[in-house]
């Protein structure tokens, strides 16, 4: 399934159930038969206590304090229900981005590997198209790096307020370059065994420069950009491979149908699957991992997987199990219970569990299986895809932002803080405003997720062309191509000769429009003083809004938010991705990667490099496969 921001923001950019920015964000396989909606009535607690198994202790409410028994009891499995048994060294639960690389690394370490994938072989497909990583030779050869890896680790920690795990971040940063180079080294195009992605050109390799490129800050239009770029107190690096096929110049119709909306990452990952199979890995499709098997010491030694007919297959694992089973965004009970910030805002807005569900349909199988043997989900605040989108084709450019009352409310350059700040504003439109100098301001920014992307300079130059063609004084505005991602779907931009008229076009009341004009006047005073004394926005962005026509775009703030593509709350592990129990002790034979792994995002998806959900899944999958088989990692 191709998932785009357009699918999540139908009807306009809304701080609501479909908030998401980058299609390079999800870590699991595409819609899986084994990842179906929860059968429990949404939001209702199970009257029975959760069953204790292998170290778990009582009802999850005892330590998660949710009021909903989202964990429940593990399935009762009788050996008489086991139709078949396989023996091996490593079992990987999940065949998405993380599971593919975990299986490959483990087989390269000499292990006999079984991969359990809940989808059919026909419909197995990884999500995502942006692969964030650091210091691959591929990046360095194009002039991006080598970067200071320790500096990037520290930036991750700063952005997450220290709520993430520094060792887990280090495992990503220090191993991601090798992982990426290794993955693309296996691509030998063409290969008749590869299933092409819809709309891709089979005559062109997915790693050809026409299909895979590095997103860059818009300042490159005026010359080379030195990274990191500092914006709003945060650093960003050009350090992402965007695997999106050839560029599309089409504006598309109102639904965005004609936009360039696909990824070739699955074609790349298929070569890693084939390599693991050549080395002896066995892939088992339509196998939903349901319960871990432990020995008398509590070590994980295998998995029971459910077959389509309701029988079970037993997989014995002499070395252990790697959980790569995705998130729990499709389990409305788990999401409502565990993602408290989201569920509380939604409840206050009169919404329920189904409203916040993610695009993912995964039900948290990996999380549950680990908890049943004593594992723990990371504590609050549990991260989701809470990155902000402005509803404008220029994305997160730090123009002046005004809430529905016409008031400024934050440092617009600190994009990391935009989601939380915007969610707390009054109901109604939040707009971004500039003037005829808008393009000069755009070129001063970094390459934050959601920022204008000049890796393909046409994205920016065509945006300028579209904005220049927006009619002044037309209340319907004009449709402009997105400059942020490959999708190029249109967004509405308005132009007017006065701030009041512009705000009226964007749905502001007369009173709010007058307040907006006063806010612009105050902003211009700060610009003339040369410093933002109100919110301390970077001086380089303080351009007075005083040369009409004025331009603006907006999104509707409904004061609640859905999960987006996926939720990122995972299991507590040590720095080598081994799952920990309630006492902080390692559970022998159990590792986690992808969206089963906690400690990655802390407070949310606030990262210095775009594409980190996919990049971390791929890298942590490889790290887990190596660690589980005794190989060294950095």
Summary tags:
634 residues, alpha/beta, FAD/NAD(P)-binding domain, Flavocytochrome C3, Chain A, domain 1, 8-stranded mixed sheet, 6-stranded mixed sheet, 17 helices, 19 strands, 26% helix, 16% strand, globular, disordered N terminus
Provide an overview of this structure.
The structure is a single chain. The protein is an alpha/beta fold. It has two domains: 298 residues, 3-Layer(bba) Sandwich (FAD/NAD(P)-binding domain), CATH 3.50.50.60; 158 residues, Succinate dehydrogenase/fumarate reductase flavoprotein, catalytic domain (Flavocytochrome C3, Chain A, domain 1, Alpha-Beta Complex). Strands 2, 3, 9, 10, 11, 12, 18 and 19 form an eight-stranded mixed beta sheet that branches. Strands 1, 13, 14, 15, 16 and 17 form a six-stranded mixed beta sheet that branches. The two termini are 35 Å apart.
């Amino acid at each position: 399934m191709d998932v785009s921001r357009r699918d999540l923001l139908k009807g306009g950019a809304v701080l609501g159930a479909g908030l998401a920015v980058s299609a390079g964000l999800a870590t699991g396989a595409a819609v899986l038969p084994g990842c179906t909606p929860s059968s429990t009535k949404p939001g209702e607690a199970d009257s029975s206590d959760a069953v204790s198994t292998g170290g778990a202790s009582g009802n999850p409410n005892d330590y998660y304090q949710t009021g909903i028994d989202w964990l429940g009891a593990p399935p009762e499995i009788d050996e008489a229900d086991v139709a078949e048994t396989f023996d091996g060294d490593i079992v990987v639960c999940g065949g998405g981005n993380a599971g593919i690389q975990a299986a490959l690394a483990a087989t390269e370490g000499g292990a006999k590997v079984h991969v359990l994938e809940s989808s059919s072989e026909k419909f197995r497909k990884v999500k995502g198209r942006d692969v964030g990583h650091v210091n691959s030779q591929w990046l360095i050869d194009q002039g991006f790096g080598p970067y200071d890896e320790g500096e990037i680790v520290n930036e991750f920690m700063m952005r997450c307020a220290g709520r993430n795990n520094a060792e887990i971040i280090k495992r990503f940063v220090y191993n991601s370059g090798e992982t990426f180079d290794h993955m693309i080294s296996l691509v030998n195009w063409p290969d008749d065994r590869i299933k092409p992605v819809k709309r891709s050109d089979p005559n062109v390799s997915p790693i050809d420069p026409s299909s895979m490129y590095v997103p860059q800050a818009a300042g490159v239009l005026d010359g080379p950009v030195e990274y990191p770029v500092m914006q709003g107190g945060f650093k960003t690096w050009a350090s992402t491979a965007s695997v999106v096929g050839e560029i599309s110049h089409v504006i598309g119709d109102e639904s965005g149908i004609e936009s360039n909306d696909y990824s070739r990452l699955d074609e790349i990952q298929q070569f890693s699957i084939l390599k693991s199979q050549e080395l002896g890995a066995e892939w088992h499709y339509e196998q939903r991992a349901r319960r871990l098997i432990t020995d008398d010491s509590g070590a994980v030694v295998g998995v029971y997987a459910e077959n389509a007919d309701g029988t079970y297959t037993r997989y014995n694992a002499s070395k252990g199990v790697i959980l790569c089973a995705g998130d729990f965004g499709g389990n409305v009970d788990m999401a409502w219970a565990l993602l408290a910030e989201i569920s509380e805002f939604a409840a206050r807005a009169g919404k329920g569990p189904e409203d916040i569900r993610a695009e993912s349909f995964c039900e948290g199988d990996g999380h549950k299986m680990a908890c049943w043997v004593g594992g723990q989900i990371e504590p609050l605040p549990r991260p989701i895809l809470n990155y902000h989108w402005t509803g404008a084709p220029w994305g997160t450019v730090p123009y002046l932002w005004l809430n529905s009352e016409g008031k400024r409310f934050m440092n617009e350059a600190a994009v990391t803080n935009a989601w939380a700040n915007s969610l707390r504003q009054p109901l109604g439109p939040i707009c971004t405003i500039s003037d005829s100098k808008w393009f000069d301001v755009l070129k001063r920014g970094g390459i934050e997720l959601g920022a204008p992307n000049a890796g393909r300079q046409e994205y920016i130059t065509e945006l300028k062309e579209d904005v220049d063609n927006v009619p002044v004084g037309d209340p319907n505005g004009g449709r402009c191509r997105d400059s942020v991602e490959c999708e190029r779907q249109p967004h509405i931009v308005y132009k007017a000769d006065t701030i009041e008229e512009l705000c009226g076009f964007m749905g502001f009341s007369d009173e709010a429009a007058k307040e907006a004009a006063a806010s612009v006047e105050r902003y211009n005073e700060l610009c003339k003083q040369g410093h933002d004394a109100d919110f301390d926005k970077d001086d380089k962005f303080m351009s007075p809004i005083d040369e009409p026509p004025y331009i603006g775009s907006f999104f509707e703030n409904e004061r609640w938010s859905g999960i987006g593509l996926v939720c990122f709350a995972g299991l507590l592990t040590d720095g080598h991705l081994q799952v920990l129990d309630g006492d902080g002790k390692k559970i022998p034979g159990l590792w986690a990667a992808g969206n089963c792994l906690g400690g990655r995002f802390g407070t949310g998806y606030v990262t210095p490099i775009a594409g980190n959900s996919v990049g971390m899944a791929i890298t942590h999958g490889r790290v887990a496969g190596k660690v589980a088989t005794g190989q060294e990692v950095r």
